[in-house]
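Reading a protein record of the kind used here takes little practice once its layout is understood. The reader may check this reading against the record printed directly beneath this paragraph.
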Amino acid sequence: MRRRISLPLKLFFIVFAFVLSCIVLISQLSYRYVQKEIRANDIFYTNQILDKVDQYFTVNFSSFQTILFSVETSLKANIDNPEVIKKQLRELYELNSNYVSNIYLIKNDLSILGGSTPTRIFDEPLSEREPLFEAADKNRRTTFVSNPYKSKYSGWTVTMVRYLNGAPFPMAIAVDLDLNAMEETLFKINKQEQMNLALITASGKIIAGFSENKGPLNNQDHTFSIGETSAEQILDTTETSFQLHTKDGIPVTLLKKPMEKFNWTIISINDESRLKAALSRLETYYFELLAAGLLLSLFISFFIAKYIRTPLYALKTKMKRVEQGILTTTITINRNDEFGDLSRAFDRMLQQIVELIRRVELHNELERKLEIQVLQSQINPHFLYNTLGSISNVIRLGQIEKVDVVIGSLISLLEYGIEDASEKVTLHQELRNVSDYIEIQNIRYNRNFQLIEHIEAGLLDFPVFRMLLQPLVENSIFHGYNGGGIEGPITIHAYREGGIVIIEVVDQGEGIPANKIKHILESEPSDVEAKRKRIGLKNIHGRIRLHYGEQFGLQIISIPKEITRVRALFPAGLYKGDA
């Protein structure tokens, strides 16, 4: 047989699964939300860094412009004194050597007056200066910024050049930027912020930046690509933030920002290492939260299951004892909830069952006593003795014609009386039995007790108890007519009134005092009645009430010296087939 799982255990698993699922779901949603927020904050933070880098180079651009204007002003004042110009160039270079590789004048023959030590010595014309001089000559009112190139004396550099207006012969002022210094600055930012920044020209050339650990980059000849996407393609897109994949399929996030002063672009490539580090710490917390959730789920599930199990098992124990027949079992559940209500209702039900059983036992015992009393009275020795004595008197007086009447009535009474007392009979059968009884009493007392019947149509077949009317008629003769001392009519009525059938026996004898009427249906039979084994009115009253309810039974209405009515009340619904 398949083993049944108990309700508390089922409840434990259900609550455990529900609570743990909620915790996992909330944790997962929280994790995803925090992951999204970290990613968004990372992009925001990176954009902030890009803005700071842009501001830094904007300030540098202004510084370089200031250098150019300073040289221009100084040269105009000392154009005829080369030594003073050389000295001023050297001082300006030494003052700004952290940011520039050289400060110099380019003459129209491409020779120079340089501020750095090598160019003070080697000032011969170089062809690399020709594009710079031509650009300055074409844009005499603005500052020209070159693309990065390899300079003989300044190395990998970018030159800012400005034409010297008002000079006696064509010349330009040039400043070579120290890209290595710029790159070192970007490397510091990359290291501190775990970023990968670089300055890119409009043609995709790397001016400075990108850490030594290039990661997703493919560097070739100062340019780069990410996977299948080249630097030119990256710069051509209008988006400032997008995702790319390396040749190994690793996703990277790229952010770019055009610089305000230079025609350059700041690019940040994030391979999510910083994000992964943050998420790694978050995952540790996430698993700790899951472990705590697991323990919390177990605790809550155990607590709820125990909260249900204790009263449930108490009720189960109580029911098992009741099943074993122990109706007086008491297991108190002192709780102000549904289990407490159920326990108290169960206790009340047990009390009602015990009370009902007690009442049924009393009912059965009372019914048994009443039926035994009827059986005992059915063959009444005293009545039989009197009847036989009456027959003897009739014969002695020579009234032979009455003998057959008495014997016939006695035989009918005896045959009727030995039947089952619990069996119901029709009202017609009871009337016939009462008629035989009156015949005997008339001869016995030498009186004329006239029997009058007023029966409503259809009630002759109404079912009644066996020996219902004889005790009522006997009561009329014995009490109403002083035991045959006086004579008078005995009238039997049967009629319907509402939902009740009323059968009443009426005599016009002595009557019953009002103070005794209510005691007749409640008191025990007297010793005389017990010896005579009569069926008392209380017996009739009790039998009717036992069978049909408290609202039915006998009613006694009496006016002393005038009339007495004894009514038997039955439910009218008995008429259909109950007999």
Summary: The radius of gyration is 64 Å.
